[in-house]
Amino acid sequence: MTITITAFERSPDGGKGLARDTRVRWALEEVGQPYEVRLVSFRAMKEPAHLALHPFGQIPTYQEDDLAIFETGAIVFHIADHYPGLLPQDADARARAITWMFAALNTVEPPILELGNARLLERDKPWYAERLPLVEDRVHGRLAPLSTRLGDADWLDGPFSAGDLMMVSVLLRLRASGILDEYPNLAAYVARGEARPAYKRAFDAQLAVNKAPAG
Ligand SMILES: N[C@@H](CCC(=O)N[C@@H](CS)C(=O)NCC(=O)O)C(=O)O
Q1: Which pTM was predicted?
Q2: What is the distance between the alpha carbons of residues 51 and 105, in angstroms, rounded to a whole number?
Q3: Is residue 78 packed enough to be buried (19+ CB in 10 Å), middle (13-18) or exposed (0-12)?
């Protein structure tokens, strides 16, 4: 059985680990499953061979025997569901960990993505300066309650889980904005995630791809 995922041939972030293949790499490292990576260019992502794997022409994808799936949340859930290490055995604790995965992707990430898009794509618009604080407020609207809920715990619900993996990955996208530093417990939470050996292996693997000479 070979697991193959796809990743950018050259990530737009230059190897900061923000492309979503890092989340999948991290999950695979946490559960100790070896995997192969097929690198795809932006052009190849929109061609029929890749569209057969990912209807929206994106990365990451995940193949294992006859199974081919896409969507990072579904991939990380599949890994966590099939290999021990990322979800508790207890049914209620498992349901809560899965809840945090969805909360990361559905509730916390959207305003963070909106902020990223505003900063990247809207800087030259006449309404940028007026809109930016509104978008930032929406980010704070998610971070403040998250910070309250986390309190001084290490992880969101007991031991580290796929819920934390996803939440830390989502919060990492805020690092450059400085907003995370306004919530010291969230900044420390993210740092704890980054300090995990599995995260480091995942990060280093994607960095190696992005630092390799263009071929
Ligand atoms: N909801 C998807 C989003 C996937 C996504 O946005 N992938 C980005 C890389 S992180 C991508 O492929 N962007 C290139 C494009 O959309 O053309 C998931 O979570 O997997």
Answers
A1: 0.97
A2: 23
A3: middle
